DNA sequence: AGGGTGACCCAACATAAGTTATGGCAAACT
DNA sequence: AGTTTGCCATAACTTATGTTGGGTCACCCT
C-alpha cells in the first residue's frame, strides 16, 4: 500500500468528475438539502481534483490535515490497523465527505483507503472555516454528514450483532445498493463495485471462505449474485428481508430528516416514513 | 420500559449533580479543553436537571427535540429496536452529551435509555444556537463530542470483528474503566455499574450464557471479575492485552488531539502518543 | 413464612463459523 | 506458450458460540 499521490487536473478547466446526468460537478448526498447557491459555493471551494488508482492509503491515521476531501467517483474505505490485521470500519460512496472529521479533530483516528479507481476533490480548511462562519445552514450540513456516518456505524453494530452471516451480507449489499441509488448510481438490477470478497468478508467480520459460502446461499436463494466487480440483485425484496433492511438510518428523503437546529421551525418537522 | 418522566429539581437552587471532588456541576469529558469561562457558560445553559431511575426510554427514536441532554451521573444506553429485539449500539458515561445529534438532526435514529440511577441536565437548543454562533471554540467542542461517539462506534466495529468473545468483553470492560477514570470516577481497583450480564451480552453481541462463560474465563484468568453492579480489575495489564485495548480512539490527553480547525494554528499540533 | 422474580451459573448438546487444504479460472506477465 | 498471481469455490475438519434445560441465590411482595 504505497502512498503516491499524483497531481491531476490542476490548472485544468473544466475539472474532472462532472456528473453525466445532472451536469453537476458534485453528485452530493446532501444536494437535495442545499440551495443552488450553496451547491455553487461548495463546488467553488474545491481547489483540486485527483484521479486515484488501486489500493492505497490516501489519508493516514494521525496525519495533520489542512484540507478535507470529497469523494466524487468511486469507493473509499475507512480502516483501522491494529498490529497485523486491518479492519474496515466504514465505506464511502460518491457524494460523501470522507474526512470532514479532520476539520473538527486535529487528527483522524483511522485511515482512508482508496480501492479501484476513484476521483476526489479537495477543500481547504481555511475556506471551509469561512463558510462555516458565514453560512450556518451549510455548517449544519457538514455536521450532519459526520452524524450520518455515525448512524451508519450504529446500524453496522446492530446488524453485526443481530444477524447471522448471510443476513449480514444481505444487509451490506442492500445498504450499498441504496446509497448508490441515492446519488443516482446503479439501477434496479444491481451495481458495479471494486469490492472483492476479501473486502466484503472483512466488513462483515467473517472469513473469506464463509463469505463465499454466504454469497452462495444468497445466489442459490435467488436474492443476489456476486461476480467480480458486479452485484446483481436477483430479488430486491428477498434481499431486504434477509438483511432486515430499513433505510431510515440513512436519513433519506421522507425518512428521519436533517434538522434545522440553527434556524428552528417546528412546523417543518415531518412524520416518520 | 414505560416512559414516565418525573420532574425533579426544577426551581430548586442549587441544582443536583454537583461533583463531590471538583465542586463543579459538570464533570465533563471536555472540561480539559474548555476555559473556566466556557465551563461557567455551559453550566449556566442548563435550565433543568432530573434524577431518573430504572430502565426506561428517555428519548425515543423519532422524537422531535428542542433541547439537548447531558449525562451528569449514571449510565445511559443508545439502543436500536428492530422488531422484537433491542440492540445496544452505544454507552454513555457521566460528562457525555447524549444527544447533541438532536441539535443537527431533526430526529434521532435511535433511543436513549436510562439504566440504574442517573442524573441528567437539559439545555435548550435556542440557547445552544446562540452559543454556537458566538463561540466557535465551544461549537467545535460540541461537534467533537459527536465525533468522539463515532470514533467509539468504529472501535466497537473493529473489536467485534477482530476479537473472540472473551477478548470483546475484556475490551469493553477496559473501555468503560478508562472512560470513567477520564472523568474522575472509579479507581485502579475497579468501578461500579448498573450494567447486568444481559446488557454486557447485548453490547458484545453474544448470548447471556456465553457472556457468563467469558466472564468466568476472565475471572479464572485473573484479569477481571464481575459481581452484581461491580467490576473488579484483578490485573489491568492482562485485561488490556486480552482486549488489545489502545485508548487513542478516546482522544484523551496526550493522544489524538481535538482539532482547532476554527482557529487553525499548525504549530499547536502535537505528536501522537 | 411462602411464593415469585430477576440475575447468575453450569452441563450437554446443536449449530454456525473458522481453518486447512486443494483446485479452477481469468488476467497479467515473460 | 507457459508461468505466475489474485480471486473465487469447495470439502473436511476443528473450534466457537448458541440453545435447551436445568439449577442457586438474593431480593421483594403478600
How would you sum up this structure, described in words?
- The structure is a homodimer of 273-residue chains.
- Chain A has helices at residues 36-45, 101-104, 125-134, 136-162, 165-182, 197-204, 208-220, 236-242; strands at 46-52, 56-59, 67-82, 85-92, 111-124, 190-192, 224-227, 230-233.
- By secondary structure, chain A is α+β, with helices and mostly antiparallel strands.
- In chain A, strands 1, 2, 3, 4 and 5 form a 5-stranded antiparallel beta sheet that branches. In chain A, strands 6-8-7 form a 3-stranded antiparallel beta sheet.
- At the A-B interface, strand 3, strand 4, helix 2, helix 3 and helix 4 of A face strand 3, strand 4, helix 2, helix 3 and helix 4 of B.
- The first copy, chain A, binds a DNA duplex (30 and 30 nucleotides) through residues 164-165, 196-198, 206-210, 212-213, 215-216, 226, 228.
Feature tags:
three-stranded antiparallel sheet; alpha+beta; 273 residues; Jelly Rolls; homodimer; Arc Repressor Mutant, subunit A
Amino acid at each position: 500500500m504505497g502512498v503516491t499521490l499524483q497531481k491531476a487536473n490542476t490548472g485544468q478547466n473544466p475539472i474532472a468528475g462532472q456528473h453525466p446526468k445532472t451536469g453537476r460537478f458534485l453528485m452530493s448526498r446532501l444536494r437535495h438539502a442545499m440551495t443552488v447557491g450553496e451547491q455553487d459555493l461548495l463546488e467553488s471551494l474545491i481547489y483540486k481534483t485527483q484521479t486515484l488508482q488501486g489500493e492505497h492509503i490516501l489519508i493516514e491515521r494521525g496525519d495533520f490535515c489542512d484540507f478535507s476531501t470529497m469523494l466524487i467517483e468511486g469507493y473509499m474505505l475507512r480502516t483501522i490497523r491494529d498490529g497485523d490485521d486491518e479492519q474496515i470500519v466504514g465505506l464511502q460512496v460518491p457524494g460523501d465527505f470522507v474526512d470532514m472529521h479532520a476539520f473538527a479533530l486535529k487528527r483522524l483516528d483511522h485511515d482512508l483507503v482508496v480501492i479501484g479507481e476513484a476521483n476526489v476533490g479537495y477543500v481547504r480548511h481555511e475556506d471551509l472555516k469561512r463558510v462555516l462562519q458565514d453560512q450556518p445552514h451549510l455548517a449544519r450540513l457538514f455536521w450532519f454528514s459526520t452524524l450520518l456516518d455515525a448512524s451508519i456505524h450504529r446500524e453496522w453494530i446492530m446488524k453485526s450483532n443481530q444477524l447471522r452471516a448471510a443476513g449480514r451480507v444481505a444487509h451490506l449489499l442492500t445498504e450499498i445498493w441504496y446509497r448508490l441509488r441515492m446519488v443516482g448510481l446503479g439501477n434496479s438490477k444491481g451495481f458495479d463495485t471494486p469490492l472483492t470478497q476479501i473486502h466484503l468478508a472483512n466488513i462483515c467480520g467473517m472469513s473469506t471462505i464463509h463469505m463465499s459460502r454466504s454469497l452462495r446461499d444468497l445466489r442459490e436463494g435467488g436474492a443476489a449474485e456476486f461476480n467480480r466487480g458486479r452485484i446483481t440483485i436477483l430479488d430486491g425484496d428477498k434481499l431486504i428481508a434477509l438483511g432486515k433492511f430499513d433505510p431510515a438510518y440513512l436519513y433519506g428523503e421522507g425518512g428521519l430528516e436533517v434538522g434545522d437546529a440553527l434556524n428552528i421551525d417546528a412546523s417543518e418537522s415531518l412524520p416518520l416514513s
